[in-house]
Specification:
With 505 residues, this protein is α/β, with parallel strands linked by helices. The protein has 15 helices and 25 strands. Strands 17-18-19-15-14-21-22 form a 7-stranded mixed sheet, with helices on both faces. β21, α14 and β22 form a beta-alpha-beta unit. It starts with 5 loop residues before the first strand and ends in a 9-residue tail after the last strand. Bound molecules: nicotinamide-adenine-dinucleotide. The site of nicotinamide-adenine-dinucleotide has 32 residues, from α7 and α8. Nicotinamide-adenine-dinucleotide binds next to α7 and α8.
Length: 505
């Protein structure tokens, strides 16, 4: 029987040596107390990839103390913007020199396809370059119209010690959306990558050391939310937490950080709608829908995981999306032609499947997929491209983050209905609108609740443009000039000119 999907089988399993991953604390690489470690296997191939130091509370504290001392010592914050920029540019060059090694480990730990991993590493290097430009142009404000006797300046100062906690879906890229901005601002940090994808952040640590970063400015502690993440979000010596991950953990971090009133910036989940009006240019929209849902196997905060389609075109759109879905190459992430790789782990695969089962039990129609995918030569977790229609907006599959290659199809008649559906989820990360009518696009863009709106496109991204969410998709922004502002504190200096102060008594 012909397979209804396009599959890329494994030619051979990777035979890499096991990668030993350590902590970077105060410029020194070290293992955990008592030699405690854990392992990461490739979610696609099943092979052992990494053995990782299992961080303890004491190691997290040591890293925070190192970051605190490095900040308070003033060596990094005291450099000129030009000097910090030169360092960031140097790191960007080292990332490019090491991209093959970084990309391969990213694939083996995350299951994402190699072509995508390489593009992400190059995109990350570009962000380090962009942050260098910000470091040189960072400045505050001056106030010269407060009266002839007053001059005031508003200084921008680094916020201090930042805990940076990252997820597994874009490990190197997300670390690069945070660390260079914190460094450009003059902050010091303690970084905890996801326990599922630790290696490429450790490589970044190597590159930072090679580029000559002073000890303690960036520290990396490997391990789990408990205990490492807990210490990083509650310790009194930390000034700010920059977190990317699930909304559930984001809420817990907000609460944990409240006792010490740390600033928290968070990039959380999404249930991002692409809305197709009846006059949409479908050749482009259909491709963008397929890209939006299968990119990174749907394990993407920006996944276009629901489409809201005008009822006049809903049948055609659903049929054409299902047809194109069959042509997307799923399979061995190490093969250069693969576009969709493995699901991060079996437990997550089961969760994806349960969303589809529940929808089906509730009366939805599975137009395509809905089950794990067998890829010849691989025993890892893969999930078939899946399209589900006949939904009501209340169903979990239509409003919760499935985080898999599962597209939910909803329909509408009027602009008001489309807006109500788009804004009906608790998330507000991104949204898209497809129409040939500029007025339709503008009205939708202004009324939709989202941090980013794409009109007649999906998931374009630029280092220059701020990214982040509203509602339960998080607080604060990354990238762009706003991405730097997050790591800055404002200090107002008011200066009297001459002995002009009027006496109070
Ligand atoms: P997660 O929330 O489970 O874990 C994220 C990180 O937090 C990991 O490093 C984890 O070890 C750590 N952590 C777990 N519990 C913690 C605690 N109590 N205190 C401190 N740290 C803790 O998320 P995940 O499964 O790794 O990533 C997937 C989620 O990330 C999805 O919801 C996705 O939408 C979101 N995400 C959002 C963006 C964005 O920019 N908005 C980008 C990528 C991923």
């Amino acid at each position: 029987m012909d397979t209804p999907y396009t599959l890329i089988p494994a030619e051979a399993l990777p035979e890499d040596a096991v990668n030993n991953v350590q902590h970077l604390i105060n410029g020194e690489w070290c293992g955990s107390e008592g030699g405690a470690t854990f392992e990461r296997h490739s979610p696609a191939h099943g092979t052992l990839v990494s053995r990782i130091a299992r961080g303890s509370a004491a190691e997290a504290e040591a890293a925070i103390r190192a970051a605190r001392a490095a900040f308070d010592g003033g060596e990094w914050a005291g450099l000129s913007g030009k000097e910090r920029a030169a360092f960031l540019l140097n790191v960007a060059d080292l990332i490019i020199e090491n991209r093959t090694r970084i990309a391969r480990l990213e694939v083996l730990e995350s299951g994402k396809p190699i072509s995508q991993a390489e593009a992400e590493i190059e995109g990350a290097a570009d962000i380090w370059r962009y942050a260098a430009a910000l470091a040189r142009t960072l400045h505050g404000d001056s106030h010269n119209s407060l009266g002839k006797d007053m001059l005031a300046v508003v200084l921008k100062e680094p916020i201090g010690v930042v805990s940076i906690i990252t997820p597994w879906n874009f490990p190197f890229l997300i670390a690069s959306q945070k660390i260079p901005f914190a460094l450009a601002a003059g902050c010091t940090c303690v970084v905890k990558p996801s326990e599922l994808t630790p290696s490429t952040t450790a490589i970044l640590g190597e590159l930072l050391m090679e580029a000559g970063l002073p000890a303690g400015v960036v520290n990396i502690v490997q391990g789990f939310g408990d205990p490492v993440g807990n210490v990083l979000t509650t310790h009194e010596a930390v000034d700010m937490v920059s977190f990317t991950g699930s909304t559930q953990v984001g809420k817990a971090i907000e609460k944990a950080a409240a006792d010490t009133l740390k600033k928290v910036s968070s990039e959380l989940g999404g249930k991002n709608p692409q809305v197709l009006f009846a006059d949409a240019y479908l050749d482009s929209a259909i491709d963008a829908i397929v890209f939006g849902i299968y990119f990174n196997a749907g394990e993407c905060c920006n996944s276009g995981s629901r489409i809201i389609v005008h009822e006049d075109i809903a049948e055609e759109v659903t049929r054409r999306v299902a047809e194109l879905s069959r042509k997307v190459p799923f399979g061995d992430p190490l093969h250069p032609d693969t576009k969709v790789g493995a699901i991060i782990h079996q437990g997550h695969q089961d969760k994806i499947q349960s969303y589809v089962r529940d929808a089906e039990a509730g009366g939805a129609k599975v137009e395509l997929g809905g089950a794990p995918l067998e890829v010849p030569g691989l025993e890892g977790a893969f999930f078939a491209p899946t399209v589900v229609s006949g939904l009501t907006p209340e169903m979990p599959i239509a409003r919760e983050e499935v985080f898999g290659p599962v597209l939910a199809v909803l329909t509408f008649k009027t602009m008001d209905e489309a807006i109500a559906l788009a804004n009906g989820a608790s998330y507000g990360l991104s949204a898209g609108v497809w129409s040939e009518n500029i007025h339709t696009c503008l009205e939708f863009s202004r009324r939709v609740q989202a941090g980013t709106v794409w009109t007649n496109t999906w998931m374009d991204g630029f280092a220059e443009l701020p990214f982040g969410g509203v509602k339960e998709s998080g607080q604060g922004r990354e990238l762009g000039r706003y991405g730097l502002e997050e790591f800055l504190e404002v200090k107002t200096v008011q200066m009297r000119i001459g002995r002009t102060r009027a006496k109070w008594v």
